[in-house]
Amino acid sequence: MNKIVILTGAGISAESGLGTFRAEGGLWAQHKIEDVATPEGFARDPRLVVDFYNARRAQAAEASPNAGHLALAKLEAAFPGEVVLITQNVDDLHERAGMSRVMHMHGALSGALCAACDHRWPAPMVMAAGDSCPNCQRPSARPDIVWFGEMPYDMDEIFEHLSGADMFASIGTSGNVYPAAGFVAEARRFGARTVEFNLEPSLVGSQFDDIRIGPATQTLPVWVDEILAS
């Protein structure tokens, strides 16, 4: 086995205290998705959207990588082949755990984006509605987050990695959101062995060769040790 491609979703960060879309009482439960995670919501009320992501950025800064994040960093460091990590998460817990190669298909809280000229730069901890772009000076700064209705980042590169994977692992994803929900089918099409880690099987769970049920903090360290021992 030469190449492992891994997809992570909100489930792995939930164990570090960062709420998923569906968690009761979390940040997402206080807002409608169409108000804070769509271009239309930003156009209607940029201050609401910017303040929402400021809160998410502050929450993520207080969180720490958990045993699941650390296990994947261990795999990347010790596996003799290639490990590619694709995440739907916008936090930086994978990087803080020690991973050097992380593809953020839904963007990152650490980034700012100009809605006018597409320039990107590091986001301050607190953004304000109407912040100016350092490139074009227009007051059109927004969080560098892929919202519903927008195209995820790096899709061509992601599909290229999936086509070359010997193993594909999906961790903490619901199987609700495409294109990520289709990654397992793509990897299988090219002959990859597939494994899912979740608290319960996802909507695409039937497409996996192996399903490991339980918290990622418990299941991932065991799996990584298995891979490195094989």
UniProtKB/TrEMBL annotation:
<feature type="domain" description="Deacetylase sirtuin-type">
    <location>
        <begin position="1"/>
        <end position="230"/>
    </location>
</feature>
<dbReference type="InterPro" id="IPR003000">
    <property type="entry name" value="Sirtuin"/>
</dbReference>
<keyword id="KW-0520">NAD</keyword>
<feature type="binding site">
    <location>
        <position position="216"/>
    </location>
    <ligand>
        <name>NAD(+)</name>
    </ligand>
</feature>
<feature type="binding site">
    <location>
        <begin position="172"/>
        <end position="174"/>
    </location>
    <ligand>
        <name>NAD(+)</name>
    </ligand>
</feature>
<keyword id="KW-0479">Metal-binding</keyword>
<feature type="active site" description="Proton acceptor">
    <location>
        <position position="106"/>
    </location>
</feature>
<dbReference type="InterPro" id="IPR026590">
    <property type="entry name" value="Ssirtuin_cat_dom"/>
</dbReference>
<keyword id="KW-0862">Zinc</keyword>
<protein>
    <recommendedName>
        <fullName>NAD-dependent protein deacylase</fullName>
        <ecNumber>2.3.1.286</ecNumber>
    </recommendedName>
</protein>
<keyword id="KW-0963">Cytoplasm</keyword>
<dbReference type="Pfam" id="PF02146">
    <property type="entry name" value="SIR2"/>
</dbReference>
<dbReference type="GO" id="GO:0036054">
    <property type="term" value="F:protein-malonyllysine demalonylase activity"/>
</dbReference>
<feature type="binding site">
    <location>
        <begin position="198"/>
        <end position="200"/>
    </location>
    <ligand>
        <name>NAD(+)</name>
    </ligand>
</feature>
<comment type="similarity">
    <text>Belongs to the sirtuin family. Class III subfamily.</text>
</comment>
<feature type="binding site">
    <location>
        <position position="133"/>
    </location>
    <ligand>
        <name>Zn(2+)</name>
    </ligand>
</feature>
<feature type="binding site">
    <location>
        <position position="136"/>
    </location>
    <ligand>
        <name>Zn(2+)</name>
    </ligand>
</feature>
<feature type="binding site">
    <location>
        <position position="56"/>
    </location>
    <ligand>
        <name>substrate</name>
    </ligand>
</feature>
<dbReference type="GO" id="GO:0008270">
    <property type="term" value="F:zinc ion binding"/>
</dbReference>
<feature type="binding site">
    <location>
        <position position="114"/>
    </location>
    <ligand>
        <name>Zn(2+)</name>
    </ligand>
</feature>
<feature type="binding site">
    <location>
        <position position="53"/>
    </location>
    <ligand>
        <name>substrate</name>
    </ligand>
</feature>
<dbReference type="GO" id="GO:0005737">
    <property type="term" value="C:cytoplasm"/>
</dbReference>
<feature type="binding site">
    <location>
        <begin position="88"/>
        <end position="91"/>
    </location>
    <ligand>
        <name>NAD(+)</name>
    </ligand>
</feature>
<feature type="binding site">
    <location>
        <begin position="9"/>
        <end position="28"/>
    </location>
    <ligand>
        <name>NAD(+)</name>
    </ligand>
</feature>
<dbReference type="InterPro" id="IPR027546">
    <property type="entry name" value="Sirtuin_class_III"/>
</dbReference>
<comment type="function">
    <text>NAD-dependent lysine deacetylase and desuccinylase that specifically removes acetyl and succinyl groups on target proteins. Modulates the activities of several proteins which are inactive in their acylated form.</text>
</comment>
<dbReference type="GO" id="GO:0036055">
    <property type="term" value="F:protein-succinyllysine desuccinylase activity"/>
</dbReference>
<dbReference type="GO" id="GO:0017136">
    <property type="term" value="F:histone deacetylase activity, NAD-dependent"/>
</dbReference>
<dbReference type="GO" id="GO:0070403">
    <property type="term" value="F:NAD+ binding"/>
</dbReference>
<feature type="binding site">
    <location>
        <position position="117"/>
    </location>
    <ligand>
        <name>Zn(2+)</name>
    </ligand>
</feature>
<dbReference type="InterPro" id="IPR050134">
    <property type="entry name" value="NAD-dep_sirtuin_deacylases"/>
</dbReference>
